[in-house]
Structure formats: structure tokens, C-alpha cells
Amino acid sequence: MTSTFTMPVRRQRSPALALLSQAARGTLAIATVGISGVWLFGTPVSAQTIPADNQTVAAPTETVSEALTGDIVVNGRRQQSALAEEHDAVGVIDVVTTGDVAIHSQTGIADLAKTLPGISVSRDQGRNQSATGEAQYVSIRGFDTSYNAYTLDGLRLPQVAGSSRAISLNLFSPFAVGAIAVDKTPGANKDTDAIAGIVDLRTPTAFDFSTDFTRARVLAQGAQLALDRKQKGFGGAVGIDAARRFGSDRQFGVYVAGYYEERANAAESTAVQNDYKTTNFNVGTARANGDALSADGVQWNFYNNEIKRYGATGSLDFHSDPVELFARVNYATYLNTNTMNQTGLRNELTRGQTNANPVRTLGNGSTTQAYNAAGIYTPLGINPASYFRTEDVEQELFSAQLGGKAHWNGVTASLEGSYADGRFDQPQRIEAAFRGVAYNGAASNTGLASEGVTVDLSDPRSPRPVLSSGASAYVGSLDRPTQLYVQQGYDYLSEVKKTVKGSLGWDGTGFLASVAVGGLYEDSDRDGRSLSPDVTRYRFLTPLQSGTEQGPTINQYLGYVLKDFLDYYPARGIKVLDRSQLDSQVSKYVNLATVAPQVINQGVLKANEKRKAVYGTATLKLGALEVVPGLRYEDNSFDARYFSTNANGVGGSFVKAGRNYDHLDPSVLAAWKPDDRFVVRGAVRSSYARPGFDQIAGPTRRSDADSNGVITVTRPNPDLKPVEAWSYDAGVEYYGGVGRYLQVALYSKDLKNILVPTGTRSLSETVGSVVTIQPANGRGGSAKGIEASGRFTIGDMVGSRFLGNFGVGGNITYQNTEAEYQISATDIRRSSLPQAPDLIYNAEVFYADGQFRTNLSYNYTGRFLATVQDSQPDIYVQPVGELNFGLAFAATDNLEIGVAARNLLDQHTYWATVGKSERYISNDRNGGYMNTGRVFQFSLTMKM
Question: Does 4 fall in a domain?
């Protein structure tokens, strides 16, 4: 099948997104008028009163300041209403409120979510998102993101993060999201394609607050690492929100918010260049010799990020006894201008240089000269290299929801619908490489080689080359080599999701307390386009390749040469290149219009996915015992059209793929509440997880040939089965009054049809010199864990009012996971579940009185399996911790001043290793060792 396709107008927004982009800025302007003393509807704040004949509901007696901070004072970051929701639920629910920027320096939702029990975070390492210093994805109990469902006010959002069904939460701001609720035991009335649970973001409403208010929150930040390296490191944000309730019974409520944030930061990392080699010749694979490996090359990376985040949200509600109506609108944009400057030392010889090592034949028939006469890994040739890449990201989301409930004689009917339009765009992925003649140790730098890159791994965080003085002088000069190439590509993915759901329920007073039935219909249209930068490559003239023009050296670029780097300055310095010169170079040499339509077509994806569900639940009450049995049926279907490359990696055609699969999931949730203090919970439920969309449909991706001439072709598998699971939960909770509670839970999950993590090998077939990788269902897995959380405020246990305002809090999750999966037709592996850390905990000491609030908190996430490899040891991410501090001072009734600091101990942000131990730092593709430094914040919160 052939198809013609014109160059995509990739960054074209839908009318809704374009309109909302302007509306977001407008909301800020309108709300700013409110700050000066005029409310949205034209009534001065100071003049707002309820007419005497309409005062059927008493106005709140609290001041605005007391209303907005009162719950925080007695319960830290978790409002009393959030804790009450956890207590009253039948299942296991954890809730955190997000708007307290005074003592939290995190301006990303994911970083706030990780304070909840059992929540871990992750990032898209392939797009340099770890370098932003903020988390991107959240996962319940560390399960892979595909095992979680992500919703906004209970309805699913477009999944445009690229490689999974996760939602990139760096799109959202605490200025516009009121709370994050994590349901770890969702019943039949909620989505069951959520093995780990559901993460729900909640839009604030006027009914969430006990009084009307207008509030402005302004903050300024400084990123220490960026400033220390003489890079952009300052930032700031402003958020304005307001809530009003009105009507004769205050039955109407409106809430609006707008925010704008800009910040800059830097990051630096180090890693080895390539996969590890066995130290001794012909002893088997690197995986089989995990205690005797040698590094192949070394590299250092420096990242700059300039982030913008802005948006607006609004809610309109009507509450009365017979009818409840609501409307929600959210718009959010996230922009990251990301550049990476890399320098490295590669083990390779170039033209005119001879390898002194003997030619040896490997077990697979190929040859190598990387081992000396004694059979010890001794690569020859030191090629100094530099590399520049951009990973700009644009994310945009618009969502609108309408719904309502009607109550009549114990019968409740509800209906709601939503429209959501999201896009993920990398409009300009620029790459530039600088490589030339290698250093071989000879006086003329030709002939027989005598030197190579030996890497000292004695410091597991800092691989260091061992070089002679001649090699150091050669590789240290930024006047060599000249530029090798420049190229540009793009990635684009959008999804429009439309959802309708409804329910009909009856409430009784006896043993059968309620019965409900409901259903859902969800329709998603996906549009994707991608172009690999390799196909646009412009080659400069170098001693190693022909070309029409010679490219510049690193020193001929404008920019700044770093003076410091981690704990060791690289043997070859890093220059932060002036990006504008690279942009101009791309405009001059790279013309996307010349790319053949057949090549453009290879990155096209058109797809539609539908999900339908029906369910029934009942609530049974016997004294203090409440039991909720339920049954849910979900039917899924998808149709896709994409380009599929032939098995030999050459040629191909457009194909259509489609599949239907359904799932029936029973569940039973129970809670026993003998009094207001104790709750005992239990749950048994069936669930499933849909494969990531790129695993079942999408363009085939073909790699360049490696040093041995092997090409890797990665293609989707539309026949993948969903992962299936049975989950068992039990817990006990104690609530001891204001600021005191303890929650303990046990859980177990049995999994079937698990998948190897997205982007890794699961079933491979070699055809000549081409390796075809296609995901396949594996075998089974399991998880067993214990989770505890609590908070204790000293309160009236001591006579001192000062001491009584101190408290401690925290949570801990410890689990053991197992997985069995298929790497190849003959290779069955057993390991822990990918992405699931064995230990997660938070600990906090806090103080709160009427004027001061402060906390010191520490978050820890243990080691976890990140990527499954075939002949190499698996990739693990080592433990990471973060110590944060916040202090807020109420200068007046309407002004609060805050200072906060993140990562006080300057711990690493990411550390990936080859194998479980810290011994072997990973190669660059898997992240290596990265640091983003400390962040300091000053804020003002003005309440009226």
C-alpha cells in the first residue's frame, strides 16, 4: 500500500487549544483586577454582604486568613477535609492538598504527590526530563505507570506522554489543582484498568472553602547549581485565584484561577560511553561476568532548561437538596527549552591508524581487536568528541466537564460528560556532533596505536579516564575536532478524548443500604507524526568524510566554557554553546522540505480507541460493618494505521491493525468502623492493565548500524494481551483527634501476562544482520507489601503551648515483588517487577501555631529495576533521597511570607547502574549519575 503525505503542519492547535491559550492569560489579568479590590462580578470585596432578607445561611465567622490556613496549622499539609475523606471511604484512599506554596518549593504536582504513602516518581530519561529537577510521572507503590489510571475530576485525560498511558504531571501546577487523591482499591464504580490504583487530580470548587476569598501567591526561585555555573538559574511564578458562593442559600459557587511560571535550572551528569565489555576475552556475555567488566569510553553532560508553565481553571457549582450541577474547565501549557552539551572520550581508531592488538574471533563468528595478547580488554585509540542536542518539549491540554446529580425519594441519577484535547510536541530536535582524528599515542598520530581510554571506576559516581600527558593535551583542546554533522527531527502526538458516564442508584435504610448501576463510553482519536533526525543529516567536510564545507570547532562557537563540574572536571572541557548559532545552522543546512514523502510517511500514526463499561454495586450494612460488592465489565477496541518496516529493515508499507478485548472484574470492599477512632478495611478485586499504545500500534523504528553492522528494528505488537491481576488489601486505622492518626495496610497482588518494560527487548528474532524486537506477553508476577502512615501532634499532652505545637509525621512502604518473563525463545528470567522500589518512605518534623509554620521533611525512594537487558546486566536506579525545608510567617492577617529550600543535602537526582550494586555506572542512554542541585524559594501569599 502506498500513501502520499504532505509536510505536516505539526504545531497547529485545535481551535479550543488556541482559544484557551489566550484565555489563560486573560484570567490572570481579570483576577489581578480582583486583587486591587474589585471582584470578578464587579462587587468590591470589602462591600460584599448578604442582604438581610436572604440570610438563611449564616456567613462564615472565620477570617479569610484563618479559613485558608486553619486546617494546615493543625494537620500540616493535609487538610482536615482530606483526612475525613480517607476515614469515611470504604476503600483505601490517600489525599494530599497542593496549594500551600509558602512552605513547599515544588511547583510541579508530581513532586507534591510523592509525599503520599507508597507514591514514587519517574521521568522520561530519553528526553532529558530528569535534568529539569522535577518529577514527571507518579506511580502507586512503584508499579509501572501502565498499571495506574490517571484522571482529572474522575475522568480520564488524553495520554500524550509518548511511550505509555501515563500522564505527564509537570503539565499541572499547584496553583490550579486543589488536591491529589490516590485510590488504591477502586471499586466497580471506577475504572478497573488500574491494577495499582487511580491517581485523581481535583479542580478546586467554592464549596471546598469555608469562606469567600481572593488570593494572590507570588514566588521567586533560584537554582544554585545553574547560578554557580554562571547559567540562567532564576525564576518566579504568580498565581491568582478566587472563590465566591452566592444565592439565597449560598447554593451557587464559582472558583477561578490563573497562573504563570518561568524558571531556569541546570543539571550535570556523567556516564560511560557504551555497553560494558568483559575484562577477559571469550568468557561469555557481560551479563554472565558481572563482577569482571570494563568500561568502554566515558562522557560528561551539561543541561540547561528554561521552563514556562501557565494555565487557567474554573469551576461552577450548584448545590441543593434535589439537584447538584457542576462545570469544570481546565487549560494548561508546559514549555521546556532544553539543551544538552556533551563531551566524551571514545575508544576508536580512525583512518591511517593501526590496532596493535591481535585479531580474535568471538563465539558468534565476529572478530574483535579490543583485547591484548594476554586476553585483557585493552581498547586502543582515544577520540575526543563533543555533541549538542535539544529536547524542547511543548505540552498543552484543554478539558471541559459538565455533569449533575438528581435526588428523588432515595433515588439518585447522575450524568456527566467531558471533552479533552491534549498534545505533546517536540517541534525541533536538533543534534550536532564533533568528531575527527583519534589520538593513538604515536608522534605522528598515525600508524601503530599504543594508547586507549582506560576508565577508572573506583568512584562509582565518577568514572575517570586514565590518560598520558600527551593524550590529555590532545583531547583537552577545544580547537579539535571540527563539526561532523548537524540534523533536525521532530515528534508530535495528540489525542482528543470524549467521555460520557452515568449512574442510577437507590438508597435504603436497612441491611441493603444502596444499589447502583452505571456505565461509561469513551472515544479517543490519536494523531502522531515523527521524523528521525538521522534522515536530515548534513555532513560537513572532515578528514574522515567528504563534504562541501568544513564545520566549525567548539572553540569557534560562541558560548561559555564551564569552570567546574560535579566533583571532577572532565579531561575534555564542556562549552555551553550559543543555541542561536545552532538554530541558524539548521536553517542554512537542514531543509525538511527535501525529505522524501515516503520517509515522512514512515512516522505517521492515525488511531482510534474506544472503551465501554457497565457496572453494578451494592452497599450492605450490618451495624458498624459496611460491605460493597460490585461487578464491572469493560470492552476495549482499537484501530490504527501506521507504517511497518519489513523484517530486513529495508522498505515496508502502511498497515492497518485492530483488536478487541474485554474484561470482567468482580470486587468486594469492606470497612468496619466500631467508633469514630478505629477503622478496619479489606478489599479483594480483579483488575487489568491495557498495554501502552506504542506497544500495540505505531511506526516501526529502525536504528543505524552499530559497530558490528547490526541493525535493530523495533515494531509494535497489536496482539498483546492486557496484564491481569487479583489484588488483596487489608488495613487498620486509628484516629486520635486533631493532628493524630495511624494507618497500617497489607497488600498482595498476583499478576498474569506481564510485559517487559516499554522499550526493552522481550522477544527477538535475528534475520541475517537485522534484529527484530517486538513486545510479547510474559508470564506472571506478584507483589506483597506493608504500608504505614501517621501523624502525631504533641498538643495538650504537655503544659507548654510552644512544645504542644510540634509534631512528627511520615509514611513507609516496604514490598517484595517478583516477575517471570520471556527475553527470547529460550531465555526465561526471574527478577523484581520493573519500576517497583522495595522501600519508599517520608519523614517530617513540623511546628505550627497561629503565626508560624515550619517543616523539615525527607523523601526516600529505594533501588528499583529500570530496564531489562539481554546480554548485558539489567539497569537499576539506585536509591535517591531529598531533604526539604519550609517556613511561613503570617506578617498580618492577610499576608504570609514564606521561605523554602529543596534538596538541602545536594543529593543526586538520578543514578542508574548496570547491575544491582553501585559498582558499574550506566551508559549515557540509561542516565548515568545526575545532579540538579539545590533550589531556594521566597514567596508571598496575599489573602483578601
Answer: no
Task: State phi, psi for 18 to the nearest 5 degrees.
Answer: -65, -40
C-alpha closest to that of 865 among 827, 825, 914, 824: 914
For 114, the 3-state DSSP assignment is coil
The overall longest dimension of the chain from CA atoms, in Å, is 100
C-alpha cell at position 169: 504531571
**Taking Cα atoms as reference points, which of 828, 634, 823, 637 lies closest to residue 718?**
637
The span from the CA of 436 to the CA of 479, in Å, is: 11
Number of other residues whose CB lies within 10 A of the CB of residue 15: 9
Average pLDDT of 56-83?
Answer: 47
Sort 457 into a burial class: Cβ within 10 Å, 0-12 / 13-18 / 19+: middle
Amino acid at site 187 = G
Per-residue confidence band for 648, with pLDDT thresholds at 50, 70 and 90: low
Q: Which helix (H) or strand (E) holds 584?
A: helix 579-589
pLDDT digits (tens, 9 = 90+) for 419-445: 999 999 999 899 999 999 999 999 899
Are 608 and 642 in contact, with CB atoms under 8 Å apart?
Answer: no
Comparing C-alpha atoms, which of 395, 192, 374 is closest to residue 311?
Answer: 395
| 925 within a domain of the structure (yes/no) | yes
Domain count along the chain? 1
Classify residue 442 by burial, with Cβ atoms within 10 Å: 0-12, 13-18, 19+.
Answer: middle
| C-beta of residue 897 within 8 angstroms of C-beta of residue 65 | no
* Helix 80-88 and helix 64-75, axial crossing angle in degrees, nearest 10: 60
Q: What is the pLDDT of residue 109?
A: 86
Q: Where residue 944 falls among pLDDT bands split at 50, 70, 90?
A: confident
Cα 182 to Cα 57: distance, rounded to the nearest angstrom: 33
Joined grid coordinates for residue 614: 457497565
Q: How far apart are the first and last CA of the chain?
A: 65
Determine the Cα–Cα distance for residues 74 and 70; give it in Å rounded to an integer: 7
Residue 139: strand pairing partners: 120
| 282 close to 360: Cβ distance less than 8 angstroms | yes
Distance CA 620, CA 618 (A): 6
CB 703 within 8 A of CB 712: yes
User: Residue 791: which of 62, 221, 278, 76 has the closest Cα?
Assistant: 76
Cell of 593: 522540505
Asked if residue 9 belongs to a domain, the reply is no
Helix, coil or strand: residue 907? coil
Retrieve residue 56's grid coordinates.
438563611
Could you give the CA distance from residue 72 to residue 57 in angstroms, rounded to a whole number? 25
Tell whether 565 is covered by a domain: yes
Give how far the C-alpha of residue 185 lies from the chain's centroid of Cα atoms, to the nearest Å: 22
Backbone φ and ψ of 869, nearest 5°: -120, 165
The domain that holds 612 is classified in CATH as: 2.40.170.20
Residues with Cβ < 8 Å from 787, sequence gap 6 or more? 117, 118, 141, 731, 743, 744, 745, 746, 747, 811, 812, 813, 814
Rounded Cα distance, 502 and 511, in Å: 25
How remote is the C-alpha of 712 from its chain's centroid?
Answer: 27
* Residue 750 to residues 20, 599, 628, 668, 902, Cα–Cα distance (Å): 44, 44, 22, 16, 38
Predicted local distance difference test score (pLDDT) of residue 824: 66
* Torsional class of 651: left (φ above 0), alpha (ψ -120 to 50), beta (otherwise): left
Task: Indicate the helix (H) or strand (E) that contains 846.
Answer: strand 839-848
Residues 6+ apart with CB under 8 A from 409: none
Residue 389 near residue 339 (C-beta atoms within 8 A): yes
DSSP summary character for residue 595: S
- Helix (H) and strand (E) counts for the chain? 10, 50
Contact 614, 521 (CB under 8 A): no
- Full residue range of the structural domain in which residue 315 is found: 15-943
Closest listed residue to residue 383, CA positions, set 492, 261, 467: 467
User: Do residues 533 and 487 make contact, with C-beta atoms less than 8 angstroms apart?
Assistant: yes
- pTM for the predicted model, two decimal places: 0.89
HSE-up of residue 871 (Cα within 13 Å, Cβ side): 10
